[in-house]
Design goal:
The structure is a homotetramer. Chain A is an alpha+beta fold. Chain A is built from 8 helices and 19 strands. In chain A, the strands form 6 sheets. Chain A has a 5-stranded antiparallel beta sheet, covered by helices on one side. A 5-stranded antiparallel beta sheet of chain A has the order 10-9-11-17-12.
C-alpha cells in the first residue's frame, strides 16, 4: 500500500496533483440506501476553498465536485463512489523558477529523494489542494454519521500566541462560521484577525490550533489494541499537511497531573452511565465511552513566505528564493473543515468496523 | 480487521490477556537472512519488565520470549516469526472484587459496552502486559534497522511537573539506562525520583513525557498522503496504553511560531543536503529528510490509585473502590522501550514499503 | 474493504456503473520513473472494446482513457494514477423494462438482496463494462513488467465444443490478434467463427476457455502460504465476470495422473536450473520457479439470449423476458485482454512484494 | 503483507514450520459471545491428522490445539484467539540428506531462490503440516456459521481415474466419514481404496478431486467486483498445497454449454425466490443467491515417491533421490477437512463483511 488510501471499511482512496488535470477519489464501503445531499457536500467544499474571505489568498478555484458513480435516484447503491474536481488554475509556467529549487520546509527535497522525479508545479501531490478530496469524502461520512445522530464540531482555538481560553458551553456551528477565522468567541476572533493582518504586513506567516468535538458517538467505537480510536484519529490528523501535533482529552497537560485529579469518576443517572469529568476525551482503552470525543491539532506556520529566503537547488548550490505572489498568512481557519472531514472518516470507519463485534442475541 | 495487527510490510499481529495462558504474536514480512540475537531481545524485554528497580511495582514476571518459528540456524528464513510469553502470575481470584465494577479511567466500561463480555482479570486484553509483545517484535525490527545503520534513542523528558530542559548534545543510551527513571540528566533524574517517592507516600500517581530520536534514517521514508511518516508514528504512539498526545519536531510550540522562525533552511556540505535547524523533526511532506526524527509522547497518570475512589458497577449502583495492593506510581520510565519498539516497527515497515518507490536504473 | 480494490503493492481501485457518468480507477504503488506509452494503453483498450469486428455486438463506445494524475513529462511520479473513461451510451430509458425484473443468471437478484437498491441500467456495476478499467490498469502493469523483460501472452483455446488441441510452439501475439476469435490456429479459428455464426442464428450463446502464458517471470514471485502465486491468479481470474473455473499447469487433469508422470524433473544447463516438463505450470510451493506460468480460465456462455425466457419480478410474479436488441454470442475473444490485464496486475503486485524478501548482501 | 494472513474481517494469521517448535495462529475479528466447543475443534483436527486409518502414512502426531487467549468462561471475548500446536516429531537429522537437494515438484528450489535460506526439515513452512492451523481456525469459523444455520459439506469425488458419478441426493456427513477415502458412495469408495493399495505397491502416488457444498448461506454474501464470493473461494482453495484447479457450479463444463442450457431460471414459491437449476453454483455477480454453493477442487498426485528419481542439488549437480520411508499415496481424503476449513474462513469473513452493506431501516 502506497499510502493513498484511508480507512478499512469506509475507505477513501485519492489521486491528484495541484496543477494536473484533476484531483479526485473513490469511496468504497459506504452502505447502500444513504440519501446524498449534494448541496451539503458543496457547502463543505466552499468552507475549505481559498479566497472566500478577505483573510485568505486570492486564488479562485470553483472546487465543484463531480460525482461519477455510486448514486442512483439520489441514494447510494453500495457501489464505489467515484468523484473528481477539475483543476482550474494550471498556469504551469508560473513554477519554472522552482523547478530545481528546494523551498525550505516544503516537500520538494524529500519527494526528489524518494521518487527521483517531481511534479514541481504548485507543490504537486504535496499541495494542500489534495485535501479538497478529503472534504468531499468527509461530507459523505458526515451524512452517514448524521443518520446515527452523531455530530462533528470544530473551531480554531489558537492562532500565533492568541488563544481561545475556554471551549464554549453551547456548541453552535454558526458561531464558528460567522467568524472570519472560525473562532467562536467574538473577542478572540477579532484579536486573531488583527494578528493576521499585522503578520501579513510583515511578510510573515502564522500557525495555530484547532479543537474538535465529536458529539453523540455511541460507546463501543475503536478497535483495540493497535486501532484504538485515538490512534486512528492521531494518524488522520497527522496526515494533514502542516500538522505537527495531536492530543486527546487532557493531552500533554496530563503529564503534569496526578491520578487523583485526572481520573474521570463514573456516575449513573436514570440508567445511563457517564463520567463527571472528561479528561479521557471520550475514549478509554481505545474505545469510545459515550462522552464527547475531544481532541486538538497543532499546525505549524505556513512555509511560503512573502520575504526572501536562502536555500539550495538540486545541484547543492546556494540560491535565494524571492517572496512573491499572494499566499495565505495562516491556513488554520481553512483547515477546520479538513479536520472535521478526517474525523468523520475515522468515525464512519470505526462505526462500520464495530458491526459484528458481538454475536447478536 | 479487528485491530490487533500493526504494519503492512513488517507486520505484527498480537494476542493475549493479562491473566490468560500466554501472550504472543506473529511477525510477518521480516526479510530472510537476518541474524537473530536472542540475548539482545531478552535485554529489551527486561527493560520493559516491572519490578526491576526500586521505583516500580513488585510483581515479578519472567517475560521469557519463546520463539516458535521463523528462524533456522540463527537466521530468519522469511517465514513468519511466532513467539509467546507465558503468563506466570495468574491468581485470578485476586480480581473477583472488580468483576462487576467499572474502575475510573480504565477500560472496564468500554469493553463491556463493546463486547458484552470481559475478561476482568488484571485488565484482560486492555492491560499494559500486552505491550511486552510489542517490545519483543520491536527488538527484531531494531536488528533489521541496525543493518541499515539506524538507531532509536529515547528517554523520559518529564515526570509530573519536573521537566528535562534540553535534549543532551551527546545521545548515549548508557546515560538513560543508568537512571532509575530513564532520564539522561543526573540532576533532573534525582528530582524525578524524589517526586515519585513523595507521590507514592500520598497514594497518588504521575504521568510524564517521553522524547524519542531516530538517528540515521535515510531520506525517503514515509508514504504520502495518508501514510505520512509522522501519521504512522502518531498512530503507533497513541496505540500505547495511557498515551494522550503526540508531537513531532516543533509540535504544539509551532502554533505560536512565525514562518520566518520555523522554516528549516537548507544547506549543502560536501554534496550532502541538510537543514540548519530541525523544527520539522526530520520529516517534510510526510517523508524523512535525513535529519534526526524527533518526537514526544505524553502519558497520563496511572489510573489505579492507592486511595479509595467512588465508582459504579454494572447495574449502575454506586460503589467504593478500595486502593490496595502494590502498583506503579509512574509507568513512564518503563514505557521507554515500548515507545522505541513502536518507533522501530514504524520505521521497519516504511523502510520495506519504500523499496520499489522508483524504477531501478 | 468492500471489494473494489485489487492488489496490495501495485494496487488498483475502480468505480463506475455501465450507464453512469463514467467509469475509472486509481492505481496506487506504481514505481516512479516508468515511461508511459499512452498509445500502447489505447491499443489495449481497443482490444477489449465491443464492436471492433464482425463477431461482436454493434454497440460503439470509444473507451478513451483520460489520465488525470500520476504522470509528469511522460513518466510516472510515484503518486497515484487517476483515470476515467466517460460512458457514451447512456440511454437509460432502454432499461425501464428490466427495472423490476430478475434476468436469469444475471446479478439483478443478488444485488437487490445485498443492497436493497440497484442501478438496473445495463447491469450497473455488475456489467462487464467495469473490466475496461482493469485493462487500462493492466496496460500500465504490463509496461512495468516489460522493464523486467516479462511478457504475457493469451489466447482462446476453446469456444463451445471446439477446442484448440495444442499450445503453439512459437507464441506470437500476431497470430492471436489476426484471428477474429483470438485463436492462434487458423483452422480452429475458422471452426470457432462458424460455430458462433450458427449459434447467433439460433438466438443462443456460447462460452469458452482462455489459456494464458506468462514468460520470463523470475523465480521467487509469490508469497506463501495464503498469497501463493496461483492463489492470487485464481482470485484475479474468478473476479472476472462469467468465469467459472481456473486451473494452473496440469490443472484438473492432474487428478488422474500418477506422481511418477506428474513430477517435473530438475535439470541444470550452464548453471541454470530448469525442469524437463512443466506440469507445475511454473509454480512450486506457491512461488514461481522461472518456467513459463501457464493457466486456463473457463467462461460460461453469455446469459443474455436473443430468445424469450421465463423469469420472476421483484414481487415474485412470473414474467416473460423477450430476447431483443443486439448482444454478443460469445464474449470469450474479447476477454483475452482482460485475462492478460488481471495476470499483469497479479505479477506486478507480487514483483513489488518480493522486494525485501531477503536481506541484501 | 507477506502472505501469512487470510481474510479481512474474520482474519487468520499463521506461523510454523514442519519441524520447528510449534505451529499456530491468531484469529482476529471473531465476534464476542460465541460459545467455543473445544471437543468439536479437536474432532476436526483428528479428521486432518495423518495415520488415523490404514490408507495414510504412519507418522503419529497428536495435533492437540492449545488455546492461549480469546476465550473467557467458555465464550469468545472479541479479543484475538491465539493458539498453537506443538510439533512432536522433530528428528531433524532425518532430513540431512535433502539439505542441499531439490526434490522434484516440491518447494525446495523456489524457497531457496526467494529467500536464500531454507528450513529443509520436512519441507519447513512449505509442508502441509501448516494446514493444521487452518483446520483449527476453520472449526471456529464453522461454529460461527452454525449460529447462522450454515453448513459445509465436502467429500472426495475423484481419486486417480475413479470418479464419483453423481452428488448424492441426501448429504449426510456420516456417509463421508465412514468411508476410508471420504467418498460417500460405497462402491466408488471401495474402488478408490483398491486403486490406492495397487498404487502403493507400485511405489507411486495419486491425485484427486474434492467437491464441497455450502448449504443455507443467505443471499448477499460476496463483495463485488474483485472480492466476489467465487474469487475468494478460488484463492482460498489454490492456497492449499497441491491444488491445481478450482471450479464453481458448471465450471469448465460451462465452456461447452449453450446459454439456453446454462441459464438458471428463477421461480418463486411461497414468497421465496430460487432457481430451477444451479449451474451458477449458488453465486451470481459474485454474490450468493441463496442456493447451495457448490465447487470442486483438483489435487495433483503426491510429489514424494517411493521410487528413485533423478534431480539436481544446490550446486546444479545431478543426483539421485532414493524413495524411502513411509509416505501417503494419496492425501486427498485428508484434505477434505482442509477444504471445509478454508471454505468456512471465506464464508465467515464475507458474512461479517456483509454487515453494513445497507443502511438499516
Amino acid at each position: 500500500m502506497a499510502g493513498n488510501t484511508f480507512g478499512t471499511r469506509f475507505k477513501l482512496t485519492t489521486f491528484g496533483e495541484s496543477h494536473g488535470t484533476a484531483i479526485g477519489g473513490i469511496i468504497d464501503g459506504c452502505p447502500a440506501g444513504l440519501e446524498i445531499d449534494t448541496a451539503f457536500i458543496q457547502v463543505e467544499m466552499e468552507r475549505r476553498r481559498p479566497g472566500h474571505d478577505k483573510i485568505s489568498s486570492a486564488r479562485k478555484e470553483m472546487d465543484q465536485v463531480e460525482f461519477l458513480s455510486g448514486f442512483f435516484e439520489g441514494k447510494t447503491t453500495g457501489t464505489p463512489i467515484g468523484f473528481m474536481i477539475r483543476n482550474q488554475d494550471q498556469k504551469s509556467t508560473d513554477y519554472n523558477h522552482i523547478k530545481d529549487t528546494y523551498r525550505p520546509s516544503h516537500a520538494d527535497y524529500t519527494y526528489d529523494q524518494k521518487y527521483g522525479i517531481r511534479d514541481y508545479r504548485g507543490g504537486g501531490r504535496a499541495s494542500a489542494r489534495e485535501t479538497a478530496c478529503r472534504v468531499a469524502a468527509g461530507a459523505i461520512a458526515k451524512l452517514l454519521l448524521g443518520k446515527a445522530n452523531m455530530e462533528i464540531y470544530s473551531f480554531v482555538s489558537q492562532i500565533g500566541a492568541i488563544q481561545l481560553k475556554q471551549i464554549p458551553d453551547i456548541l453552535d456551528p454558526k458561531d464558528v462560521e460567522s467568524s472570519p477565522v472560525r473562532c467562536p468567541d467574538k473577542k478572540t476572533s477579532r484579536d486573531m484577525v488583527k494578528l493576521i493582518e499585522k503578520t501579513r504586513s510583515e511578510g510573515d506567516t502564522l500557525g495555530g490550533i484547532i479543537t474538535c468535538v465529536i458529539r453523540h458517538a455511541p460507546a463501543g467505537l475503536g478497535e483495540p489494541v493497535f486501532d484504538k480510536l485515538e490512534a486512528e484519529l492521531a494518524k488522520a490528523m497527522l496526515s494533514i499537511n502542516a500538522v505537527k501535533g495531536f492530543e486527546i482529552g487532557s493531552g500533554f497537560q496530563s503529564a503534569a497531573m496526578k491520578g487523583s485529579e485526572h481520573n474521570d469518576i463514573f456516575t449513573n443517572t436514570e440508567g445511563q452511565t457517564s463520567t463527571l469529568t472528561n479528561f479521557s476525551g471520550g475514549v478509554q482503552g481505545g474505545i469510545s465511552n459515550g462522552m464527547d470525543i475531544i481532541f486538538r491539532v497543532a499546525f505549524k506556520p505556513v512555509a511560503t513566505l512573502m520575504s526572501d529566503q536562502v536555500s539550495v537547488d538540486r545541484s547543492g548550490k546556494q540560491i535565494t528564493l524571492q517572496g512573491k505572489g499572494r499566499h495565505d498568512v495562516c491556513v488554520v481557519p481553512r483547515a477546520v473543515p479538513i479536520v472535521e472531514a478526517m474525523a468523520a472518516l475515522v468515525i464512519a470507519d470505526l462505526y462500520l468496523r464495530n458491526m459484528g463485534a458481538k454475536i447478536s442475541q
